[in-house]
Amino acid sequence: MGEMSSFQLGVIGALFLSVASSVSIVICNKALMSNLGFPFATTLTSWHLMVTFCTLHAAQRFNLFESKPIDMKTVVLFGILNGVSIGLLNLSLGFNSIGFYQMTKLAIIPFTVLLETIFLKKQFSQNIKLSLLLLLVGVGIASITDLQLNFVGTILSLLAIITTCVGQILTNTIQKRLNVSSTQLLYQSAPFQAAILFVSGPLVDQLLTKQNVFAHNYSPIVLAFIILSCIISVSVNFSTFLVIGKTSPVTYQVLGHLKTCLVLTFGYTLLHDPFTDRNIVGILIAIFGMGLYSYFCTQENKKKQADPLGSQMKEKDAAPFLGPQKEGHEVKNLNKDSLV
Q: TM spans, by residue (predicted)?
């Protein structure tokens, strides 16, 4: 019971950290991009990841956590996949309307459910599916303003959905299969994510903004907000891996839509963005859907705890998706096992 209580406190802490840091960085970046005229989102993300890696490297040097070796092929491909996913999401936003981009983000949940059902043999109850549907409807009402389609934007959105879903499923699977913590996985993969975005970021940003990031006027206030954004990003990146590792990719996406509702609310109260009755109704429906999802997940977890043998058998049946099955709870020869 003590371990279960500690685990639940850890999950709650991870969720709170993720929400607080994500809302903070959105507000910071909105001020940086909208008010201060720094529109280079992809390049900024590469700086975020480099600062995250440097911070974790310093923490590892001071023995705040122990680095754990993971097969290089797994780490490289995983890092590149996540880097490409971020770039595609930014391109999707650049080539599509805001409404269609929001639809792209909403589509990540059902596609993740589909992938986990097909490849990981994971089962979702009708109650869970109903609560997710209610959540998606609420967020759609609150955030979607138009749906302008174009061929290039649609292709980019499809690729963004696929890479994001696969990346998040792998984040969860690698942590559990190789018995590595969120910090250890982020430390190993952050350099490769940063590298792919550092190389492609300026090109992507120039394509979207018609401006050169290297020719931008970096005033002291712009530099201050860039530094603040990078500092907050350490918490954002860490909490993302932490939440997915402790819960599931679907729960992380549900949390993401809670952040959307909070950003809309903070945007109205702090930045005086336009707010309508439709936004309010959508947010209330989404929050109700999130509440139902949390309730049904809690009930199903209690059932799993009451029948631990059955849940372990289901996990073993799902295990072969990404690699050879290991015996017991301890994983040996990590540097020889590849999941990707």
A: 38-58, 70-93, 99-120, 127-145, 151-173, 221-243, 280-296
How does pLDDT run across 38-88, given as a tens digit for each residue?
999 999 999 999 999 999 999 999 988 899 889 999 999 999 999 999 999
**Looking at this protein, which amino acid is placed at residue 201?**
G
Are 146 and 97 in contact by the 8 Å Cβ rule? The answer is yes
Residue 8 lies inside a defined structural domain of this protein: no
The Cα–Cα gap between 153 and 62 comes to: 45
Domains identified in the chain, total number:
1
Q: Residue 145's domain spans which residues?
A: 13-304
Enter the DSSP assignment of 120. S
Q: Is residue 68 part of a domain?
A: yes
Q: pTM to 2 decimals? A: 0.79
> What is the per-residue pLDDT for 188?
94
Question: Does 290 reside within a domain?
Answer: yes
Q: Residue type at 59?
A: A
Give me the pLDDT at residue 329, please: 34
Residue 256 belongs to some domain of the structure: yes
Whole-angstrom distance, CA of residue 323 vs CA of residue 316: 12
Digit-coded pLDDT (tens) for 171-185: 999 999 999 999 999
The tokens of 268 are what?
């109205």
Q: List the alpha helices (DSSP H) in the chain.
A: 2-30, 41-61, 72-95, 98-119, 126-143, 151-177, 182-209, 220-246, 249-270, 277-306, 308-318
Instruction: Extract long-range pairs of 118-125: CB within 8 Å, 24+ residues apart.
Output: 119/321, 120/169, 120/173, 120/318, 120/321, 121/314, 121/317, 121/318, 122/318, 123/314, 124/250, 125/296, 125/300
- Write the DSSP symbol of residue 32: I
pLDDT digits (tens, 9 = 90+) for 151-169: 888 999 999 999 999 999 9
